[in-house]
Amino acid sequence: MATPKIEEFTNEEIFLADIAKALSHPARIKIMKLLSEMNACVCGEIVNLLPLAQATVSQHLKELKRVELIQGDIDGPKVCYCVNVNTLQKITKDFQNYFNNLNKGEKISCKPKMK
Amino acid sequence: MATPKIEEFTNEEIFLADIAKALSHPARIKIMKLLSEMNACVCGEIVNLLPLAQATVSQHLKELKRVELIQGDIDGPKVCYCVNVNTLQKITKDFQNYFNNLNKGEKISCKPKMK
DNA sequence: ATCGTTCATCGTAAATATACGATAAAGAAA
DNA sequence: TTTCTTTATCGTATATTTACGATGAACGAT
Description:
The structure is a homodimer.
Chain A: H1 11-22, H2 26-38, E1 41-42, H3 43-48, H4 54-66, E2 70-75, E3 78-83, H5 85-104
Antiparallel strand pairs in A: 1-3, 2-3
The structure holds a DNA duplex.
């Protein structure tokens, strides 16, 4: 046993996984797209653009807010959502980095007889 | 109700979400990193580099295999895993595209008085 | 043939995620 | 005020995920 069993994940690994989790549902992928196309959008409009009930969409918005990918601005009885530009730029950079590093490997694949 | 309720998600939305799901756990983020750094790696080595039991790691490897981010080559009693370069290149491009489009918006944030 | 190693799968427990109707809260409109 | 609209939250059902020990299958070594 040359390599000692590792004890924890790094903060970076946890962070990237958490962002990936926030984007791991088609509804949330779409909400991000919608908000960036429309710059901002009230909740009700988003609900109409998704094949889901209002309560469910509200949950998905909450998950995106959790990682600060979006923010909501209360506007009378409505809530206007928009992309959080700071977070978006950070994760864009972080994932570009991550993918770039993944692509750096020598790409010597094992024999391709897949299990 | 100007916008008719949408019925389904697009294949692209489903695909991106599915890849994000495959990367939504620190162990799987790390496995991809390890495999790309080492080019290839037998399962047992991966188990030693993660704070998880062998059965659990095997499950995570299965999830990465499901979306074809990695492949396994049976080598006697061992299994040698490596990154699937084709898939990696595809998703790198797809996510770069997705993030680029997200960043294209006019970035007029709603008033930042958050909920 | 038997044994040890390696890894996937099974069984299972606990936690988390997804979905929706119902309700509550908050403001606009009457 | 009363009512309507909008949205978050509650309650709840179901499904999926995560984790691990135990077992089984495949192979190399003895």
